[in-house]
TrEMBL record:
Designated name of the protein: Beta-1,4-N-acetylgalactosaminyltransferase
Family as reported in the entry's similarity comment: Belongs to the glycosyltransferase 7 family.
Entry's Gene Ontology cellular component terms: Golgi membrane
Example of a GO MF term: metal ion binding
Highest taxon in the source lineage: Eukaryota
InterPro entries, per database record: Galactosyl_T, Galactosyl_T_C, Galactosyl_T_N, Nucleotide-diphossugar_trans
Cofactor: Mn(2+)
Species this chain originates from: Glossina morsitans morsitans (Savannah tsetse fly)
Record membrane topology: Single-pass type II membrane protein
Chain ranges of the Galactosyltransferase N-terminal domain: 62-150
Any Gene Ontology biological process: proteoglycan biosynthetic process
Keyword Membrane assigned: yes
Length: 311
């Protein structure tokens, strides 16, 4: 009996070790950039990193495609959604033959979530290689193959999650959820506003930027599904940060003509490769900087001094 028990323990140990090693390969976070540095990764620094990603793509599909799409996913504490999002969207886009790569824009600072600034960072990181971006919520999964993630026309951005199709938001100027934007258009609009800390309104301000640039939002036509079955909304019931503090409500209701790509301040301390169900994605760990004189509402925990301590 003793020998049998020892053999069983040894077998369990070997199996456990194999499982751990396998998991390390499948869900590995492999450093691809400077770790623990305070440098802002410039476009010239991003090129070789993205180049390595492209070389690893199956059949070099990105290098052969007429257009390449960077899927930019603003992210914080949404791992359950990410595990569903990556396999689903990859299969969806594969059926359309869309050359793409998923970039998870992981905000790791202690400020409130800033979706727009994260998208600006993702654009800066990818625009040297990819000629259009998908600003994509992690909790919105397309179900209808009639939704084509194609290169936007000269007219302007292509809004996949149109108001008549989105499960929750139906107002005419809505451009959230999933929006495809050409890099030249995004650059011309100076990206998105950096003033939107917390949840909401950054898309509404971006709509005004689109209009002011002389562009217009296009949307899918002749879609046979409705708001009930075009998308799967997998948002888990987490509380959204809708708090308004200082003069946030007043300022964020106006068109921001001051901030954008040109005023963006951030650090990328590390870049990682990750595999989910055998699908390679890239994680950017992003630290956003907040000017508490301009946007003290980046921290609503109490006082400006508490916000300053996060720098």
């Amino acid at each position: 009996m003793a020998k049998t028990g020892i053999a069983t323990i040894n077998w369990l140990f070997i199996c456990g070790l194999a499982f751990c090693l396998g998991g390390a390969v499948v869900l590995s976070l492999l450093p691809m950039g400077p770790i623990g540095t305070d440098c802002i990764c410039p476009l010239s620094g991003a090129k070789p990193i993205i180049g390595d990603i492209l070389k690893e793509a199956p059949a070099n599909q990105h290098l052969q495609a007429a257009h390449n799409m960077a899927v930019l996913v603003p992210f914080r504490d949404r791992f359950e959604e990410l595990l569903q999002f990556v396999p689903h969207l990859t299969k969806f886009l594969a059926r359309q033959g869309v050359a793409h790569h998923i970039f998870v824009l992981n905000q790791i600072d202690r400020y409130r979530f800033n979706r727009a600034s994260l998208i600006n960072v993702g654009f800066r990181f990818t625009s040297a290689v990819y000629d259009y971006i998908a600003m994509h919520d992690v909790d919105l999964l397309p179900l209808n193959d009639e939704l084509r993630y194609e290169y936007p026309s000269d007219a302007g951005p292509l809004h996949i999650a149109a108001p008549e199709l989105h499960p929750k938001y139906h107002y005419e100027n809505f451009v959230g959820g999933i929006l495809l934007v050409r890099t030249d258009h995004f650059e011309a609009m100076n990206g998105m506003s950096n003033r939107y800390w917390g949840w909401g309104l950054e898309d509404d301000e971006f709509y005004v930027r689109i209009r002011d640039q002389g562009l217009r939002v296009t949307r899918p036509r002749n879609i046979t599904t409705s708001k009930n079955d075009t998308f799967s909304h997998i948002h888990y019931h987490r509380k959204r940060d809708t708090q308004k503090c200082f003069n946030q409500k007043e300022v964020t209701r106006k068109r921001d003509r001051k901030t954008g790509l040109k005023t963006l301040k951030y650090r990328i301390p590390s870049v990682h490769a990750m595999s989910i169900d055998g699908i390679n994605i890239t994680i950017l760990n992003i630290i956003l900087e907040c000017d508490i004189n301009e946007t003290p509402w980046c921290d609503c925990s109490g006082t400006q001094s508490s916000a300053a301590s996060n720098n």
